[in-house]
Amino acid sequence: MAKRFQDLGPLTNGEPMSILAFKKEQRLELWKQRESGWEMVCSYPFTGYSGTLGPKLEEGDGQIPEGIYQIEYLNPNSSYHLSIKLDYPNSFDRKMADVDGREELGFDIFIHGSSATIGCIPIGDEAIEELFYLIAKNGYSNVTTIITPVDFRLGAAPPEVDGIGWEADLYAKLSKRLKDYPIPENPNNEDDNKEHQLPTVPPSS
């Protein structure tokens, strides 16, 4: 990390961070909020994938959730090297389940290392070490995770989901939220993105 980030101070100063995860593109991005707006730190490809496009609805469906999530805790003793626990199901997931009459929504959704997955987001061991460290040093309570079926910033159309009627509202909310984050110059070139270094900002007086 010392080679990849000349100065970790601006990345770990406690200011908000965001994780963006795009299921179709199978890409995860880490962003840091600066005075000038959101700036991307780096991106990582998924190393595994399960399910299809569309929200997670029940335990055992293999789906990666879609929505806006907070981090519950960091697990340094994960079976998948390291892992980051998301708060699925959140209040929106539970509310929609009540509307649909669904129970047993599933649990234990993580971003983790390795490549095996059933409904989680794996990014490999080296990448999770980097992401885990940056989030731990910055404070995981300052990180919001946004998981979308497609990268709406690129003009992608939302998927059609059978059996539910509330996904359009969810996707409109997610699309609106993504407008805060500029489209990376080279969104699918992870090697270039990982070399991006946020400018050092002097401490405020």
Automatic annotation (TrEMBL):
Pathway: Cell wall biogenesis; peptidoglycan biosynthesis. InterPro entries: LD_TPept_cat_dom, Transpep_catalytic_dom. Residues 181-205 are annotated as: Disordered. It comes from the Bacteria. Residues 17-148 form the L,D-TPase catalytic domain. Signal peptide: none annotated. GO terms for molecular function: carboxypeptidase activity; transferase activity. The active site is at H112, C120. Keywords: Cell shape, Cell wall biogenesis/degradation, Peptidoglycan synthesis, Transferase. One of its GO terms (biological process) is regulation of cell shape. Belongs to the YkuD family. This is L,D-transpeptidase family protein. It comes from Persicirhabdus sediminis.
